[in-house]
Specification:
The complex is a heterodimer of chains A (186) and B (151). By secondary structure, chain A is an alpha/beta fold. Chain A is built from 4 helices and 9 strands. In chain A, strands 1-8-7-4-3-2 form a 6-stranded mixed beta sheet. Chain A has a 3-stranded antiparallel beta sheet with strand order 6-5-9. The chains are: A alpha/beta (186), B alpha+beta (151).
Chain lengths: 186, 151
């Protein structure tokens, strides 16, 4: 196991995990709003924000799938050591991590009518997050919000599946924004 | 490897001694020994539960015996050696000291650490086992058949 896979965890787990959880919860409650999140320092190519989300939300019961460039040995070992989460294929994953273009959203779990929560959450790495581009409407947004989404059609198809569907968390350096399935994109 | 020797047997043995040691005795020995290596904490000490599995008669089908509380920690010394401590109970100091000792045992100071810490703990564990066995043996009832005299 390489040295970088063992370091970079939370140095003060109770407080850092609580702060990070609060940031994730706020981001999902206010779709399109960009929040700061930090604490974990994962090996490259994963961003601090994505690493912190994984440290906060993943445990041995949540399968993680690493897509595209994120499927690196260091990162696999880092996730295994710090969270104990099993690494699984995309269709069975509770969390899918990677750059947006490497994630095949159509293949992910969208839940069942009885258990819509049994769906995947996508943690998509973005070069930058800014409040421009696609217009968002829905719960948690007063009028409209804007976010530079990588692809509008995919999110419109996903929102049409409601109450099923996939939830998205976008990360870039130490920034996080979210797009739950309840948000309408135009 | 011919499949009969475990290359990690020595490390498993000292980790086993550390895991089962009395935490007060371990802390006393650690403080007396005066090892204070520079280290980074990779995983801060944390408490959790593990499922202990057993086999009836050591050969039957495995079953879940019950959960036990464990504490664990991981450290890295300045020299690069990584140590892990998994110990029984809820004592975080015990887990951290066990991780430090595991890391030190992988360095060139292993002989000193073995003599100062592992050997006394192993002897204490043996004495504990022997004293418990002796107490149990004292309650043993020997049944024997009195041969009745025949006519």
């Amino acid at each position: 196991m390489d040295q970088t896979s063992l370091s970079g965890g939370f140095c003060d787990p109770p407080h850092q995990a609580a702060d990070a959880f609060r940031a994730v919860m706020q981001a999902i409650a206010r779709p399109g709003t960009i929040y700061e999140i930090s604490g974990a320092v994962p090996p490259s190519p994963l961003s601090v924000a994505a690493g912190t989300v994984i440290m906060t939300l993943c445990d041995p019961d949540t399968g993680v799938h690493l897509a595209g460039a994120c499927d690196a040995p260091d990162l696999r070992d880092w996730i295994t050591f710090h969270t104990g989460a099993p690494l699984v294929r995309a269709e069975r994953a509770a969390f899918v991590v990677g750059p947006w273009h490497a994630i095949a959203v159509e293949t992910l779990a969208i839940g069942t009518p009885d258990y819509p929560d049994r769906s995947a959450t996508v943690i998509a790495e973005m070069p930058v997050l800014e409040a421009t581009g696609a217009t968002l409407r829905g719960p948690g947004i007063r009028d409209t919000a804007c976010l530079n989404l990588p692809d509008r059609a995919a999110f419109q198809r996903n929102a049409a599946l409601f109450p099923l569907g996939v939830d998205f968390i976008f990360t870039s350096t130490t920034h996080i924004a979210a797009l739950p399935r309840s948000t309408k994109v135009s | 490897m011919d499949g009969t020797q475990d290359p990690d047997a020595a490390r498993k043995a000292w980790l086993s001694v550390l895991a089962k040691a009395d935490s007060q005795a371990l802390r006393t020995l650690w403080n007396d020994a005066g090892f204070a290596p520079d280290h980074d904490v990779l995983r801060a000490p944390e408490i959790g539960a593990v499922m202990v599995r057993g086999r009836a008669g050591a050969t039957g089908a495995p079953f879940n015996l019950g959960e036990m509380t464990v504490a664990r920690a991981s450290v890295r010394l300045a020299s690069g050696a990584v140590g892990h401590g998994y110990v029984q109970g809820r004592c975080k100091d015990h887990a951290l000291i066990a991780a430090l000792i595991d890391a030190l045992m992988q360095t060139d100071r292993s002989a000193f650490v073995e003599a100062a810490l592992i050997t006394p703990l192993r002897d204490a564990a043996r004495a504990r086992t022997a004293s418990r066995a002796a107490k149990a043996a004292a309650t043993r009832v020997d049944f024997f058949t009195v041969a009745r005299g025949g006519d």
